[in-house]
Amino acid sequence: MVSDISFIINMLRQPVTQVPLTNVAVVKLKKNGIKFEIACYPNKVSNWRDGIEKDINEVLQSKDIFSNVQKGIYAKQADLHKAFGKAPDHEIIEAILKEGELQVNELERKSQQDNILKDIASIIAEKCVDAQSGCPVPYTIIMRALEEIHVNIKMNQPAKKQALIIIKTYKDKLGLERAKMRIRLTYTPLAKEALQSLIDQVISESLKEDQNFVLVGLIHPENYRSIFNAIKDKHLENEANLEVLNQRVVAEGEGKLKQLGNEEVKVEPQVVAKPAPAVKRGLVCNTCPDAEFSDVNDHRNHFKTNWHKYNIKRKSRGVEPIGEAEFSIMPESEINDLLNSKVV
Fold it and tell me: What CATH code is carried by the domain that includes residue 54?
């Protein structure tokens, strides 16, 4: 590993605002059956993973790799070579920091889990409606239902990804479905022939026929993605145009969940779905369309999201930013291609 002198030097280089080897957070990674650990500052690990903290020296309490931080046992070189090959120590540390599990005390873990659960409930409330009535389900009801079904919260997985998995897994049990989108699809007769099976998935509200067709209607987000991808894959960009008029269409009233039994709020289904009224929340993002916030922390956290970063990249290329609904259905590979590009 490193010499004692090297270790002391590393300690002396710690950030002046941090006290070395106090309030230690251990990041653990098991690879090829061998456990490796690094010592970090707990409040810095998440910042580094979110891309907020760029200087890894501000994250690490020591640049050593351990098999047991608490006992001060360094990892053996033979084990490092077995697990990571000939990779240098700094690459191994980055791999552990990126892929490993952050160990925190019980109180911190409970607080983090509670915060993630709240984020998941908010995302589900935003994306879903009561499947029977089409009405929005209050955040408090969703939160209580998630606690009742004992969802497994993963500390190292984004809340949005977990929310989408929960929606898919429990939507029938809870009586939820993704809120439909209102779209406008303009297409030529040539595109109509190529897209007809997908066009049939749109619940038509109006259809104008002239030289081109103009269809306004409701569609499930997954079907929106299918049309969006088909236009691109079949090179129909000059023959068809897909626009989002309303990202989330809901009925009037308050929805319910099956899981809550007699405590459910019963609502008569509405015949015609109406868009949720727009509410100006005061805090906005000047880059992302319709990004408005009532809470200063939500506003601040928005600028860390891949949606915002993706739109910044688009603006730097002279391309219009996209809404959250369109971003949420884009292939991850396409998002990463732009985010990882060298264009600022």
Answer: 3.30.1250.10
Both 130 and 170 in one domain: the answer is yes
**What is the pTM for the complete model shown?**
0.52
**pLDDT tens-place string over residues 302-332:** 888 888 888 888 877 777 888 887 777 777 7
Q: Is the model's pLDDT at 8 over the cut of 60?
A: no
pLDDT band at residue 116 using 50, 70 and 90 as cut-offs: confident
**Domain limit, last residue, from 103, 119, 139:** 103
Q: What is the rounded distance in angstroms from the CA atom of residue 270 to the CA atom of residue 204? A: 17
Instruction: Note the helical H segments in the chain.
Output: 4-12, 42-49, 77-84, 89-99, 106-127, 139-149, 159-174, 189-199, 221-233, 296-302, 306-316, 324-328, 332-339
Could you tell me if 36 and 82 lie in one domain? yes
Q: Could you tell me if residue 121 is inside a domain? A: yes
Residue 56, token pair as written in the block: 């890894």
200-222 pLDDT, tens digit each: 999 988 888 888 999 999 999 88
Q: Per-residue DSSP letters for 255-308?
A: ---GGGGGG----PPPSS-EEPPP---SEE-SSSTT-EESSHHHHHHHTTSHHH
Which run of H or of E encompasses 242? Answer: strand 240-250
Q: Is residue 262 part of a domain?
A: no
